[in-house]
Amino acid sequence: MASAPSSKSLAEASKALYQNGEWSDLTITSGSRTWKVHRAILCTRCDFFKVICAGGFQEAQSQTIKLDDDPEDGIDMMLEYLYTLQIPALNTFDHMKMAYTLGDKYDLPKLRDAGLEALCRHLQDRCASWDKQSALQKSATASYIEEVWTWTYQDTNKFKKAILDGLCASSTRVVEDPLFQEMVSRNSDLALEFIKALTKRQAELEAMVKPTINAPKRKLERTLLEKMSDRIAAKRKAEEDLAVRAQRAAELERILRRRT
């Protein structure tokens, strides 16, 4: 009697079916890319495709689904996952982000969670190794941090925590870095959150060791943090003053217009 096929061989067979597109009965497009896929696989593994294909939508009649809002590489990753049920290699920030965002958008929990875990680990490791990076690598890390601070995903706080934990591990070395100082000067919320996280971490460490140990280093860190906090406060005050002046100028202009 022939042995039952292993899960690995089934995954390989499914991947081959996805790659060659044989016996496909559905087309997915995005930008310049086209994928020949199979309803039986997609509709049984993703409710989005099930609803689209089973309902009275135009896509069900045309047998074509346009996903122009999603990145082509991300769609490729998601479709391969749906065929093989294996998490793809997540080797870059963009791949991790696509796994998380598309997994969340199309309700694929395992893909989303894999992206979440990989992103948190990647962000924390990048930030913790800040002082060991070249100027180009630091610039890339800074761009990741600033992008995350604009996200509104349900797990954004987890990503931010990973960043803050990594930055705190570098401590003074990060605070003294001109590129880091330039980054936080553009994002006062990031700067304040970092100060809070580092202050909390220092308090926890001080509670565990004798006060005399590393006292000069802690004093230097506090001084640097105080200076950074003062700069942020001064910047916010200047922004508030400008806003008040602009409001007063607008009010004066309205008064002058009424008089004329």
UniProtKB/TrEMBL annotation:
Residues 24-91 form the BTB domain. SMART domains: BTB (SM00225). It holds the Pfam family BTB. Signal peptide: none annotated. SUPFAM superfamilies: POZ domain. It comes from the Eukaryota. PANTHER family: BTB DOMAIN-CONTAINING PROTEIN-RELATED, BTB_POZ DOMAIN PROTEIN. This is BTB domain-containing protein.
